[in-house]
Amino acid sequence: MAVQIPYVREIEFEYGDCDEVSPLIRRVVAKNPSAFTYKGTGTYIIGHGDVAVIDPGPLLNEHVEALLRALEGETVSHILITHTHSDHSPAAAPLKALTGAETYAYGPHGSGQKQGADDVQVEEDG
């Protein structure tokens, strides 16, 4: 028998705000709602003091500004990109430029592609 996992369709947030998801996880939702992104892409800040940012999000000025507000007083040590869709990765470039954080990502979609930008460390499956 398959286990039913409920899909939570409602999420309480305000665009531009940083919400605590758990004691060590905060989320900023980009204002890019669509059938693909639902209410918007979630960018996650992990930790306090020295933090990691997961999926910096789309290249929207208001989203990058919201991230910078959420990161005030923090040191971004890592930027992690789960995949290269336009709603997850483009804001990594300005975030890296502003914070100097190491950036980690898997290469572009497609087999055998291992190259990355000079400032992105690309990991191989294996």
Describe the secondary-structure layout.
Layout: E1 18-22, E2 25-29, E3 42-46, E4 50-54, H1 61-70, E5 75-81, H2 92-99, E6 102-106, E7 120-123
Structural description of this entry:
The protein is α/β, with parallel strands linked by helices and 126 residues long. The protein has one domain (18-110): Ribonuclease Z/Hydroxyacylglutathione hydrolase-like (Metallo-beta-lactamase, Chain A), CATH 3.60.15.10. 14% of the residues lie in helices and 29% in strands. It has helices at 61-70, 92-99; strands at 18-22, 25-29, 42-46, 50-54, 75-81, 102-106, 120-123. A seven-stranded mixed sheet has the order 1-2-3-4-5-6-7, with helices on one face. The longest helix has 10 residues, at 61-70. It is globular, with a radius of gyration of 15 Å. Mean pLDDT is 87; it is low at 111-116.
**SSE succession:** EEEEHEHEE
The proportion of strand residues reads 25-35%
**Main beta sheet, described?**
7 strands, mixed
Provide the structure class: alpha/beta
Helical content stands at 10-25%
| Whole-number tally of structural domains | 1
- Radius of gyration computed on alpha carbons: 15 Å
Assembly type of the chains comes to single chain
- Average residue-wise pLDDT: 87
The gross shape turns out to be globular
CATH superfamily annotation: Ribonuclease Z/Hydroxyacylglutathione hydrolase-like
**How many beta-strand segments?**
7
Terminal-residue CA separation:
32 Å
* Strand order, sheet with most strands: 1-2-3-4-5-6-7
Query: In CATH terms, what is the fold-level topology?
Result: Metallo-beta-lactamase, Chain A
Low-confidence stretches: 111-116
